[in-house]
Amino acid sequence: MPQGRGQRQSAQDQSAQDQSQDPQPARWQCAGARWGRGGPALVWRHPAQGERLSPLTPDRPLSFTTGPRRDCVGVRRGARHTPCPAGAEVPPSAVSAQCPDCARLDRSYSVAADTRTDDPRPYDVYLAWFGPELVKVGITAAEREGARLLEQAALSYCLLGRGPLMAARRAEAVLGAALGVPDRFPYAAKRTAREAPPPPERRAADLAALHQRARGLGGLPESLALAPFDPVHHDAAFHLDRVRPAPGLIQFVPEATVAGRIDAVAGPDIHLTSADGQALVMDTRQLTGWPLASAAADAPTTAPVARREREAEAPEGLF
């Protein structure tokens, strides 16, 4: 289990004094997946021990058992983390691991919600390719250097331009209306598309045509510095050659075990082979908030497995 490596103290390693004072001592809580320069990693938080990272590398064993309940992860802004003041419980099936109060506070800092119009940082406008007919437009802080596209599981992308936040927002709106590309679509479509993606050359051709059309549009802000076409592909980062069709999506419930080996990671999804040979997908957004304990590497997976939605239709909801 990731928690058992690279950490000085596990959730079970509390002192006898702490246990005598608290019948339910604090444990390590999974805070989701994070993409950095070294690739993807699971994030762990502990009220006394701070934060740890466990790399999610191919062929690494992954085995754990969930705790009795899933708790709100609070709010994280940059390097600062504020725990949920209410210690609220979060529904096991929710994509978000925040309670309503923490979600509102988090959104009050959100660029996506247009609540930080005075943000002085430069922003990139991008076109992202997730699958045939699945291309979106979006913006991301330039300082993140493409990490947002890894988090979203874009198979390929290109930058259109860079400028102040409101200029990037204006360009995003113009592109969405003029080119007919959305800013989001159902996540199930992304999973299906990555199982048999066309080669990078095909993706690049799609993006090049859209990039050329975008540069020729009127109405783009003058303060947006347009960028030449330079596609980026995530085949190696996601280990796409190791992704195989997985009929099941792991569902997290209290006291459930997952055990297997990592095949690949794309965005928030971990593709793994269970101890009994099943190809499964684990959405780390739904793993977030659970306290996890180590399990045997060859333990049976007792977590429920739901049959996946496999349609890659036109957008009908949010990802």
UniProtKB/TrEMBL annotation:
Q: Which domain of life is it from?
A: Bacteria
UniProt region (Disordered), positions on chain: 1-33, 48-74, 294-319
Q: Where is the composition biased (Low complexity)?
A: 1-27, 294-305
What is the designated name of this protein? Answer: DUF2797 domain-containing protein
Could you list the residue ranges that cross the membrane? none
Q: Which InterPro entries match?
A: DUF2797
